[in-house]
């Protein structure tokens, strides 16, 4: 049996890790594990690679995009830490969604989609039970809201959505598009940026999209410079 663990890393951020363990108590999930508040969920060994690849690694990449975007947006250190910490845990609720729904390759049924759409609120609730700061849980809870009001779980729109959640939404979507998912192939960087621009003002905050896209173009220009 594997465990999805909630850990404090050396750099002061809370992250998720998957670890194996052995107990000679003939495991049927006893109190020793269920009472451990750092264990998010128990994971079958054969499913651990899926969680690592599509949840934990995705969160780490999204956090890096958030770090870069925070620099361009000139966020102060406090806002930057809130944004990065939120990104590192934004999909913790997916660990609380049934594996057969999370890992489904085909389209989700309406019922399955509704269950999947609970992951932001489930993750925020799990963190609040551990006295996690509200400024972080609020970002996690609302990162799938859309500026046009058609998002989930609450249908918030525009400035009803916390600013840092709107930043996270762009970075989250960018990594999701540029990385291969279990249910669809990845898109090229240009295709992902075009999709962000297409959804600016609808799914995403337009100003944040403009900043994010400009950041990519500027970084590409820097990489192409030849130092003599």
From TrEMBL:
Question: Do you know which SMART domains this protein is assigned to?
Answer: HDc (SM00471)
Q: Which Pfam families match?
A: HD_5
> Which residues belong to any copy of the HD-GYP domain?
33-228
Tell me which InterPro entries the record gives. Cyclic_di-GMP/3'3'-cGAMP_PDE, HD/PDEase_dom, HD_GYP_dom, HDIG_dom
Q: Which Gene3D superfamilies match?
A: Hypothetical protein af1432
Taxonomic superkingdom: Bacteria
Question: What protein name does the entry list?
Answer: HD domain-containing protein
């Amino acid at each position: 049996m594997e465990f999805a663990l909630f850990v404090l890393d050396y750099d002061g951020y809370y992250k998720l890790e998957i670890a194996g363990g052995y107990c000679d108590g003939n495991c049927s999930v006893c109190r020793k594990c269920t009472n451990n508040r750092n264990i998010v969920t128990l994971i079958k060994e054969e499913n651990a690679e899926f969680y690592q690849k599509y949840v934990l690694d995705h969160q780490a990449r999204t956090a890096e995009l958030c770090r870069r975007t925070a620099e361009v947006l000139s966020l102060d250190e406090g806002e930057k830490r809130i944004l990065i910490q939120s990104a590192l845990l934004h999909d913790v609720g997916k660990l609380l969604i049934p594996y057969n729904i999370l890992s489904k390759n085909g389209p989700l049924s309406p019922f399955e989609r509704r269950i999947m759409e609970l992951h932001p609120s489930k993750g925020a609730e799990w963190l609040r039970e551990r006295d996690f700061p509200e400024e972080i849980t609020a970002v996690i809870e609302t990162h799938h809201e859309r500026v046009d009001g058609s998002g989930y779980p609450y249908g918030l729109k525009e400035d009803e959505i916390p600013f840092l959640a709107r930043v996270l939404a762009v970075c989250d979507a960018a990594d999701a598009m540029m990385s291969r998912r279990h249910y669809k192939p990845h898109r090229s960087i240009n295709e992902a940026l075009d999709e962000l621009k297409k959804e600016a003002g609808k799914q995403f905050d337009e100003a944040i999209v403009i900043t994010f896209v400009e950041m990519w173009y500027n970084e590409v220009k820097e990489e192409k410079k030849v130092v003599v």
